[in-house]
Design goal:
The complex is a heterodimer of chains A (about 260) and B (about 290). Chain A has about 260 residues and is of the alpha/beta class. Helix content of chain A is about 40%, strand content about 15%. Chain A has a single domain, classed as TIM Barrel, CATH 3.20.20. Chain A has eleven helices and eight strands. An eight-stranded parallel sheet of chain A has the order 1-2-3-4-5-6-7-8, with helices on both faces. The radius of gyration of chain A is 17 Å and the shape is globular. Chain B has about 290 residues and is an alpha/beta fold. In chain B, about 45% of the residues lie in helices and about 10% in strands. In chain B, helix 9 links the parallel strand 7 and strand 8. In chain B, helix 3 packs across helix 4 and helix 5 packs parallel to helix 6. The two termini of chain B are about 35 Å apart. Classes of the chains: A alpha/beta (about 260), B alpha/beta (about 290). Chains A and B meet through helix 9, helix 10 and helix 11 of A and helix 1, helix 2, helix 3 and helix 10 of B.
Chain lengths: ~260, ~290
Amino acid sequence: MIDVNVNLSRWPCRRLLGDEPDGLVANLRKRNVTQAWAGTFDGVLHKDLSSANQRLARDCQRYGPGLLIPFGSVNPKLPDWQEDLRRCHEDYKMPGIRLHPNYHGYELKDSAFGELLHLAAARRLITQVAVRMEDERTQHPLMRVPPVELSPLVDVIKSERGARVVVLNWNALEDVETAQKLASTGRVYFDISMLESVGGVARLAQAIPIEQVLFGSHYPLFYFESALLKVREAGLVDAEARAVLEGNARRLLGA
Amino acid sequence: MNRRTLLKSVCAGLAAAQVERAQTTAPEPARPFRIWDEHCHLGNVPGDTPEERMTALIRWADRLGIERLLLSQGYGTDLHPTPAQFREENDRVMRAVHRFPDRSFGSVYLSPAYPEFSVQEFDRCVRDGPMVSIGEVEADKRCSAPEMDLIVERAASMQVPILQHTWLKIDGNEPGESTPYDVVAIAKRHPDVQFVCVHTGGDWERGIRIIRDTKNVSGDIAGSNPTSGFVEMAVRELGAERVIYGSDVGGRSFASQLGKVLGAEIPDSAKELILGGNLRRLLTPVLRAKGYKW
């Protein structure tokens, strides 16, 4: 099983079971996860992303070699962010990056995002876009951050043919039209960590190609079992379940 | 139902065994626990009738080993229902429960905005009908209002629990929307009645603290993101006997909410209580009075 959405380090508002790397790795292995695409909570608020990414790469290698696949953070509003991107790719051999546009103060129609996506695509890096990290209604009063508006991505992705984007932490069933537009490009994928409504995975698979649906848990900020049980609840046939749990991510990583 | 949906529904049954084998990475099915879901609606569920919607819900519940659903509110979308609409939604729930009497119970939808009507509706649906609890009470007036007392006294007369919607939204609740503070206020006025603080305020780290010292209030974990630590904190601060699993389907999935309990670092004995033991305890007086088997 491949989980495309786990996080290392500490969430600033809460200690979590699994926020120590050895514990996180043990819990993932216990749940038969064979590969986890790991971002870092430090990438949300830290300005020294160079060191955040260095720690991420080090911890993935130290605690979960072969299991944890680091996805570094890049903030295109920081000076010389291009060097962060280069290090993620060349120094740390990361297959992708994870973006937090809402915490970093830009929208997807911003030219900085377009430039970042273009450079990431040129390096064949997967670009993960986290729509939100938590429910806006329950955020810390001094850290109120609206979700990322995804609709501008439709036009951006059309002109960026080499891009591969994974949308994290979004309930695509709340805006099926945008999800379908994005999916129709064949270059956008969706994780299920914040997918909601009963039978949600099956419903999403009726709206977009199931090949673009990925298993992501948002662990350890979320209970891992919640995502896993969504797949069980969906009642997918064998091949479909395997695709969501592993095959789609493996194909994307190898593309 | 389109072709793909039909195909999937047919294949789901036929391929169940295969899926079980395929998902060897999934946790063990929740069969060791008797799971009762305290918080279910028919909204956002496919189907043209209550019976069709309930059939769909039961199919999903079966996949996760959920034994019973406590159903309320029907599937109307009006956030400010009239008495006629309350009655219609309760009729829908009773039709759905009638279709699956061994898998579900009904809970009457009322509002302190209409106290006299609500008492009549309680009598129709609970005293003289098949329903077993009150709520999810949600619409138009906070539950701490004096008009709620009439409804609570009716609940006391039959020892039925009251499920009260609550939220603590950082940008402010809707007018008339209750918070856990409101539940505590009404619960203190009626210490012999059992209340369930539905959603535990959503912002559960605050909600749990608010209800902590009011022993006739339990916390429902339904209808919020499956944020790690919710159930552990609830068990630590309230005790496992005051924590209740519910999902808030169809807006939420059974899965995302069930995962909060099955993924929690708590003893199996606590999970047994949360997943059904506590709800069965709260409902035991009315189930016995009605002669229901469970």
